Amino acid sequence: MIQGGCTCGNVRYELRVAPSNIVDCHCADCRRSSGAAFITWGSIERKNIRLLGGEIKKVSVANRIRCFAACCGSPLILEDSVDADPVEITIGTLDHPEAFPTTKITWLEDRLPWVTIDHSLPKFQRGSQSAQL
Ligand SMILES: [Zn+2]
Ligand SMILES: [Zn+2]
Questions:
Q1: How many angstroms separate the alpha carbon of residue 24 from the centre of ligand 2?
Q2: How far is Cα 8 from Cα 25, in angstroms, rounded to an integer?
Q3: What angle do CA 131, 21, 112 make, to 5 degrees?
């Protein structure tokens, strides 16, 4: 079973299947919501996420819902809309994120110039529906 949790350990979750479509998102919203240069997301269906403990705080930004640990603010989940499925989970909050390497890079338009990227991966100017670079 794949498990993860927030910084303080109050929120714990379990994934019934492995997340897929692992994406580094360099958009400005991901940057600000995490305080990091980019967020690595993995797609997963809602039914395959089980909250084991703690509370989630949801914040709507730019028509998307960002879900944080209510206890310590760790970014956990991104929903493209209220009923979006699959949703995106932060690979960095998994107990073993090393098992899920990045497969594509999005929002290069917003990338910080000092962030080095792997040019062998598929990369996109904006979201993965935009023109591939
Ligand atoms: Zn916490
Ligand atoms: Zn983003």
A1: 8
A2: 24
A3: 55
The predicted-structure confidence for 25-68, as pLDDT tens digits, reads as follows 999 999 999 999 999 999 999 999 999 999 999 999 988 999 99
Q: Scan for tokens 């580094």, then name that residue.
A: 24
**DSSP designation for 83:** T
Structure token digits, residue 44: 């997963």
- Architecture (CATH level 2) of domain 7-110: Beta Complex (2.170)
| Closest listed ligand to the CA of 71 | 1
User: pLDDT value at position 130?
Assistant: 82
For residue 38, the CA-to-ligand 2 centroid distance in Å is: 7
- Taking the C-alpha atoms of residue 90 and residue 78, their distance in angstroms, rounded to an integer, is 8
pLDDT tens for 108-118 read 999 999 999 99
Find the 103 Cα to ligand 2 centroid distance in Å: 15
